[in-house]
Amino acid sequence: MARRALKLASLTAAASGIYLYGNKFLDPSDFGVVRVGRTIATTALITYDYLTSLRSVPYGSEEYNFLKSQIKELFVSFEYTPLGAASLAQVHKAVLQDGRTVAVKIQHPKVQAQSSKDILLIEVLLLVVKQIFPDFEFMWLVEEAKKNLPLELDFLHEGRNAEKVADMFKNFDFLKVPRIYWELSSSRVLLMEFMEGGQVNDRAYMERNGIDVNEISRNLGKLYSEMIFVNGFVHCDPHPGNVLVKKCPASGKAHIILLDHGLYQVLSESFRMDYCRLWQALIKADMKRVQKYSRRLGAGDMYPLFACVVTARSWEAVNRGIDKSPVSASEDMEIRSNTATYLPQITQLLNNVPRQMLLLLKTNDLLRGIELALNTRASASSFLNMSRCCIRAVSKYQRSKSHSLYRKAQISLTEALSLWQISLYELFLWLKGSQLGNWVIALLRRRHHSMY
Questions:
Q1: Cα–Cα distance, 168 to 288 (Å, whole number)
Q2: From 237, 260, 274, 323, active-site residue
């Protein structure tokens, strides 16, 4: 069955290729730092592939009708217009003979065969640019493409990632990951459970469907904090097309649906611990530790710039404490103008930090974009979730390195107290913002005035 589905990949991709390019069904978020060079190089070639594929199987011909009959053997219905499309693949909705509604992800024709040539072309072009501009520091783009592109092209690898993350977060009842139908999948065609919902940055959709935007933002932050700080297995493409939300009619709970599991970053233990401690220092505005862990992560003397890049906040806000005040319009303007001013230094910084950091920075930017759209950016709950995860991750690491039962117990007690303090502070913030809290504060004030 998987082989049959694979045979149909070129036909279905070709049949909807003109729709893709004629209607510009592309999401700008697909063109991240790692993908931009590859996308520029392949767009013209993919377009040519579609046109030649369509010519090779003329509409209404005997071969066309034969392949269409093959599709009918697999599916009761198959929607040729893609639900979504990007530079590597597109997704179609279909119904199997047994009645299951599925999403069929099909790789574009010849992308796999062309990818090595594209990487070589990008490498040559970057080397030429490097010769003309010796200060050009983006050769790491080629290294990242060589490492990540083959993995993204293997849909079986994507399926394994989906199952791994579903098992890893099975206790998160708000998270849904589509089930993979292995018997119908191959390296170029992936069949999975069909799930639909609104995009995670669509505030209007959430308001229409009674979904709490703050709950979604809080749960998304919780999910990614667990991925980054605790598990070190990070979904690195959370653009809005890959993260959907839907309210369950039965339970009334809002679900986050995580799609497209082709690009993950596995963080080393040493990197993860340094990153945890950096964020703990940033949240506490402990500049000595910010400097220490920024240097350990490759920033060197550019640690102030590194702290600003990681947090997307100004140096003044970092010194004051990033949880002390929300981002203002003037700070956003300052960051945008400084980005252009410090572009050479930012380029050098990106060249110096560990490669693991690059996809994390992209992930952080995408998540901030979602928070900005939902108007929940830099909320207290996001910092509290991060603090909890950092405390748990560091405590777990310390226990694993200790051979003394007394020391392990001491670490566990310190962890419990720290988590309790965060919960207490969270309760304080909730009371402060609730009607009950306002009533208690007003009562205490009246009692205070009556005493004097």
A1: 35
A2: 237
